[in-house]
Amino acid sequence: MQSNIIQPRKVSLESESKDTKFRAQLKIVYESFLKTPCTMKELSIKTGIDRSNICWLIRDLRNNNKIAIYKKVKCTITRRVVNSYTTNPELMPVSNQLKLF
């Protein structure tokens, strides 16, 4: 006979630390873009967060409409023309698309 006892799920401390690390990085990235618009590479140098992680965080923020491209600028580090991002609602561009509903 099988027992219908549900075993509690074991969660490793490593997965918990990854989740809290991700949330902490998200908060740092959001607040940094709120203060001053900058590029991903500039923010990476300023905060010490890997640029590839910032890329994923920006994707999540864009999906939630929390971040926007401020303007195209020449990066002070790479000297390439790249997007400058902001989370400041006052600096976000206004959409000129008409709303249907």
Kindly report the average pLDDT value: 84
**What fraction of the residues are assigned to beta strands by DSSP?**
5-15%
Q: In the CATH hierarchy, what is the superfamily of the domain at 18-86?
A: Winged helix-like DNA-binding domain superfamily/Winged helix DNA-binding domain
Oligomer: single chain
> In DSSP terms, counting alpha (H) and pi (I) runs of 4 or more, how many helices?
3
From the alpha-carbon coordinates, what is the Rg to the nearest angstrom? 19 Å
Task: Work out the helicity level.
Answer: 40-55%
- Tertiary shape: globular
Q: Strand arrangement, largest sheet?
A: 1-2
Largest sheet: 2 strands, antiparallel
| CATH level 1 class label of the domain at 18-86 | Mainly Alpha
N-to-C SSE string, H for helix and E for strand: HHHEE
Regions with little confidence, pLDDT below 50 for 5+ residues: 7-15
Class from secondary-structure proportions: alpha+beta
> What is the β-strand count?
2
CATH architecture type of the domain at 18-86: Orthogonal Bundle
The CATH topology annotation of the domain at 18-86 reads as Arc Repressor Mutant, subunit A
